[in-house]
Structure formats: structure tokens, C-alpha cells
Amino acid sequence: MSELPNCETLLLERDGGVLYVTLDRPDSRNAMSLAMVGELRAVLAAARDDREVRAIVLRGAGGHFCAGGDIKDMAGARAAGPDAYAALNRAFGALLEEAQAQPQVLVAVLEGAVLGGGFGLACVSDIALAADGAQFGLPETSLGVLPAQIAPFVVKRIGLTQARRLALTAARFDGREALRLGLVHFSEADADALGQRLAQCLEQVRRCAPGANAQTKALLLATETQALGPLLDDAARQFAAAVTGAEGAEGTLAFVQKRKPNWAQ
């Protein structure tokens, strides 16, 4: 079990193979400061090779997920000039890249404000659960700036047509519309229903072997960048290794013996 870093902007809790990460700046609706970006990246790095962590649940404190970037950080960068702005912006993009590639299943629980950077985090989750009353949006253009690091992930998530509409109008929409757009997988009426859905999804994740899940996630992401033939060649080799490996042997034996495999106990 890897040691997690000490954090000032995040609350961390481990429970039954799940790492719960709560954005904890409720006074600013969990606006994404540079310190929070750094702490999130450190937490993801610490958990990356920890096979005891099966899923990472990301949510926000105080009834909001994340209201976007921290205006105070932006104001602080103004005195240092354009390079400071670029570095600040790119650090968040690096977080999105790392979160998307995280070997564990990343679950986003989306309540209240899910704006800007919070919207970006939703787009890199493997499973996204929303409250019906959550408020989603890309407000950047209404502030005279660009959703610079978020845009590619939004396009991948919901397609270019919808991404153009939302980014160029700064329109706000709720969890039910997010479900219709394919941004989230479930939208629930209240906190109890949201909690029940989260528990159901985590139980489903626990049925899956952690190594197989990590390799499958990498394979799915690779379909966006690799040529089909080489991708299938690599996948065949990975399949052969998995079938003859510890998880494959245990999964096959458990099936024959009509019991749960050891990772699902």
C-alpha cells in the first residue's frame, strides 16, 4: 500500500479498495487552485502503481464539485506576464492527461457547480454520476478567455458538434441534460439515489480484476491514437499474457468452481 501525500486542499480516505478524494475548498466552490492541481497530481501518482486501490472517487465538499479555475491564481500570474499564465494553464492540462490515463477506475460524483476545470475533470472520468440539479457549463468565453486545456477532452467526450455549441455560448445545463449529451452515465434525483448509484458502480468495479482493468483501460484509450493493425497485434500479446497470468488462472478456476475470484471477495 503506497503512502499518500499530505494535502491542504484535498480530503483523502481509503475504504475497501476505494480511494475517496474530495476537493476541499468549499468557500470558493472548490475552485481549482495551482496548489490543488499539484496535490491532485501527487495523489494520482502515489496511487498509480498501488493495486490495492481499485477505484478513485473524485467529488467536492460543500455541495459543489468544482467551479473552475481559481481567479486569485490568475490575478497573481498577471504580474509575471504571459509565460506565467501559460504555465498555470498547462499544469491543469497535465492533470487531465494524467487523470485520464490513471490505471484505476476514476469515478466522478458531480453535484452543484461543474464548471470550467470541473467540467474537464468530468470528461476524463471512467464513470460519471451527476445530481439532476448539478449545473454544468464552459463559462470561459463569457469571461473573455478560452477553455484551452479542457477543449480536447470535451470534444472526445461529447463530440465536436455539441462541444462547439457549449463552448461558444457558455450555456448552463443540468444533470439530466448532461446525461442526454453523454457527458455523464447516470443522473440521480437526490443525494440518497446518488449514493446508491455510487455503491452499485463500485460493487461492479470490484468484480473486475485490477490488472485486467488497467490494461483494458489503456487499450481503450489507445484506440484513439494507434493504427488498428499494430493495436490488435499488441492486444493479442496482452491477451495471451493475461490468460496465462495469475489473474487469468484465478478467474478461470473461479468460474469452473462456481465461486467469486479472489479480487471480488
Task: Give a verbal description of the structure.
The chain has 265 residues and is α/β, with parallel strands linked by helices. The chain contains 11 helices and 9 strands. The two termini are 18 Å apart. The model has no long low-confidence stretch (mean pLDDT 94).
Which key features would you list for this structure?
265 residues; alpha/beta; 2-enoyl-CoA Hydratase, Chain A, domain 1; Lyase 2-enoyl-coa Hydratase, Chain  A, domain 2; 2 domains; 6-stranded mixed sheet; 3-stranded mixed sheet; 49% helix
Short account of what is shown:
The protein is α/β, with parallel strands linked by helices. It has helices at 34-47, 71-78, 82-101, 117-123, 151-158, 160-169, 175-181, 191-206, 210-222, 228-244, 246-256; strands at residues 10-15, 18-23, 55-60, 105-110, 113-115, 127-131, 135-137, 172-173, 186-188. The strands form two sheets. The protein has a six-stranded mixed sheet with strand order 1-2-3-4-6-9, sandwiched between helices.
Look at the structure and give the CATH class of the largest domain: Alpha Beta
Widest sheet: strand order? 1-2-3-4-6-9
Strand element count: 9
CATH topology of the largest domain: 2-enoyl-CoA Hydratase, Chain A, domain 1
Specify the CATH architecture of the largest domain: Alpha-Beta Complex
Q: Based on CA inertia axes, which overall geometry fits?
A: globular
Assigned CATH superfamily of the largest domain? 2-enoyl-CoA Hydratase, Chain A, domain 1
GO biological process, one term: isoprenoid catabolic process
Family: Belongs to the enoyl-CoA hydratase/isomerase family.
Protein name: Isohexenylglutaconyl-CoA hydratase
Pfam families: ECH_1
